[in-house]
Amino acid sequence: MSPTKPKFLFVLSSHTSYILNGEPHPSGWFLPEFAHPFNTLEEKVDIVIASPQGGEASLDSNSITYAKGDEESMEFYRTRSDLWKKTVKLEDVRGRTKEFAGVFYVGGHGPMFDLAHHEASHGIIRDLWEAGKVVSAVCHGPAALVNAKLSDGSYLVAGSKVNGFTNREEVAFGTASAMPFMLEDVLNEHAREEDGGEFVSGDMWAEKVVVGKDGR
């Protein structure tokens, strides 16, 4: 009998829209930022999908257009909608963190609105981190981490090298005025509360992987 695969938690935003120039725009999670990590990890871990509200998590329809030339993401969109239409509510995962090897927060503008201040999500992050597990995110996903605190009251990101969607990218994307805060600014502020912490980035739109505290 093959060994049981470890469980890994993926978190999607439930936020549906934001106001830009007086008009509502679709929001939520970003298709390629779910599709590629999921496909990479699916054979290695048992993935559980959760969201703040549970049920169907809000796919940013603009990300479908963005991904038109990305066949892997489009195939995922066509064939795997069950994954985001039946998500587990984050509050129901709160007491189950011992089951998981880590958590990954999918990007998209949604996390800026619902996950940045989500109590159950912050509790999951704290429990996993303090148990030596993996806490990870991509693009705007670090909005879920930016305000998370550990049991001693310090910010999770304090003293860490951190990365996420940059100010320059937000301005270039035309969405800076619609955001409740600038992700780079607050990540940098909270990271710098302990020595060695700072926001680091590469060129605009370039891939940039940052490993934080303790090789995690």
From TrEMBL:
GO cellular component assignments: cytoplasm
GO BP of this protein: methylglyoxal catabolic process to D-lactate via S-lactoyl-glutathione
Enzyme Commission (EC) number: 4.2.1.130
InterPro entries in alphabetical order: Class_I_gatase-like (IPR029062), DJ-1/PfpI (IPR002818), Prot/Nucl_acid_deglycase (IPR050325)
Keyword Lyase annotated: yes
Entry superkingdom: Eukaryota
Stored CDD domains: GATase1_Hsp31_like (cd03141)
GO molecular function, one term: glyoxalase III activity
Domain DJ-1/PfpI: 86-154
Catalytic activity: methylglyoxal + H2O = (R)-lactate + H(+)
Record keyword Lyase present: yes
Keyword set, alphabetical order: Lyase, Stress response
Gene3D superfamilies cross-referenced by the UniProt entry: 3.40.50.880
Coiled-coil region: none
Family (UniProt): Belongs to the peptidase C56 family. HSP31-like subfamily.
Matching PANTHER family: GLUTATHIONE-INDEPENDENT GLYOXALASE HSP31-RELATED (PTHR48094:SF11), PROTEIN/NUCLEIC ACID DEGLYCASE DJ-1-RELATED (PTHR48094)
Name assigned to this protein: D-lactate dehydratase
The organism of origin for this protein: Hortaea werneckii
